[in-house]
Write a structure and sequence with these properties.
Number of helices: 16
Distance between the termini: 35 Å
Low-confidence stretches: 86-92
Order of helices and strands: HHHHHHEEHHHHHHHHHH
Shape: globular
Helix content: 55-70%
Strand order of the largest sheet: 1-2
Largest sheet: 2 strands, antiparallel
Structural class: mainly alpha
Length: about 400
């Protein structure tokens, strides 16, 4: 995490130098998506200033918005290094070659880590870190003859691993459709399958749903014929797994169980955060201030008796309660603008069918994972997930401004 922070600040410093030397890069700085991020930052600062009397360290919330600087730094650095047109013409050779090599390198590493995560599910052992990082037992396996554990790969939390690898797994999956060689296609498909299997074994229900939505979206645009048989194969495999695994069966049935501890805790958090919005509709209670002790006060007001006090476990409620309706609108414009910009890039790059096209399409599918998963988890506040998301947004800001120039 510290390395990611340092890298982000270095890129921002490089971006400042690049902006001063290369005027055309300023188009990224004033892109509508970046402007929405700036507006959100200003609103966050205003809300924290307004609520300063009730917050012990109000400016820590402003510091949490440093992701805006990281986003600008990555996007400008990409444009400075790969300053070529990206419409599939002669100038694309450099970036397409580099993107292809990077996809293969990252896929190889991610596949190995995914195999390690799969071993964690079966053994409950993290051989690299030992007892310093004990794995969480899957509650549904407690009391059975076969204990199973929620893997986290090389991260510290299962949900971080699940969301991060669900997003990245779409890169080799999408990139496989670029390959003319059937052997290379199968290798990338196999790597994607291994990564997705490791995500499935995290038993993260929200990520299951979000990844499913992203895969259906991807198949519709890249491999529509597969929709004639893939759903039936998946349904058959799921049926066999549910019949043979009581742990999986219990986990799936818990999705709609209001008495399930995880579900009830989330509903308590959602109720309390919506009440925060109702009592502070304009500026919210302060960005990143909706956890304890603030949430405990709202628990009391709602008559909720729960020891689980946390953020909203929902991206949208987190911004609604923390920054009020205007801040929520800026956030929605930011993520919606990023999606729209990515879609424009997909449409413009489609005729060339270059490596960059498939990488951009994968970034669109990865954003779907984050936004659908964000309905049940505050994954935007998870630094590792957030940085990967920002890399995808930065890529598309760069591609969009290059195409517009």
């Amino acid at each position: 995490m510290a390395g990611m922070e340092l890298f982000g600040w270095l890129l921002f410093a490089l971006a400042i130098v690049s902006l001063s030397q290369i005027p055309r890069l300023r188009k990224i700085m004033f892109h509508p998506v970046m402007c929405a991020a700036y507006a959100l930052t200003v609103w966050v600062a205003l809300g924290l200033w307004w609520n300063a009397a009730t917050i012990s360290k109000p400016w820590t919330g402003v510091a949490e918005m440093r992701w805006v600087l990281s986003l600008l730094g990555v996007a400008v650095t990409m444009a400075a290094i790969f300053g070529v047109r990206t419409d599939g013409n002669a100038g694309t050779k450099n970036i397409n070659l580099i993107s292809a090599k990077w996809v293969w390198a990252f896929t190889a590493v991610a596949t190995l880590i995914s195999l390690y995560a799969i071993s964690q599910y079966w053994t409950g052992a993290d051989w690299l870190r030992g007892a310093r990082s004990p794995l969480l037992l899957i509650e549904e396996s407690r009391g059975t003859d076969a204990l199973r554990y929620r893997p986290y790969g090389l991260f510290k939390m299962t949900l971080t691993y699940a969301c991060s690898y669900a997003m990245f797994g779409l890169v080799p999956f999408c990139f496989s459709f670029y390959q003319n060689s059937r052997r290379l296609f199968l290798i990338l498909q196999f790597s994607g399958a291994v990564i997705f299997l490791s995500v499935f074994m995290t038993f993260s229900r929200g990520v299951w749903i979000s990844l499913g939505c992203a895969l259906l979206f991807t198949l519709w645009f890249l491999w529509r014929k597969a929709l004639l048989w893939v759903p039936f194969v998946v349904a058959a495999l799921a049926g066999v797994a549910l019949m043979t695994s009581p742990v999986l069966r219990a986990r799936v049935s818990s999705v709609t169980d209001s008495k399930n501890e995880s579900n009830s805790e989330r509903m308590d958090l959602w109720r309390s955060n919506f009440l925060m919005f109702q009592t502070h509709p304009l500026l919210g209670v302060g960005y990143e201030q909706n956890g304890p002790p603030v949430v405990n006060e709202y628990y009391k007001e709602l008559g909720i008796k729960s020891e689980f006090a946390s953020h909203a476990h929902n991206n949208y409620l987190n911004f609604l309660s923390g920054t009020g309706l205007p801040g929520f609108a800026f956030f929605m414009f930011f993520i919606g603008g990023a999606l729209y910009t990515t879609w424009l890039n997909v449409v413009r790059l489609k005729p060339a069918r270059s490596p960059l096209y498939y990488l951009v399409f994968a970034s669109l599918a990865a954003q779907i994972v984050l936004h659908v998963g964000g309905l049940t988890e505050y994954n935007f506040g998870d630094a590792e997930v957030q940085y990967q998301y920002l890399a995808y947004v930065a890529l598309n800001l760069f591609v969009h401004t290059e195409n517009a120039s």
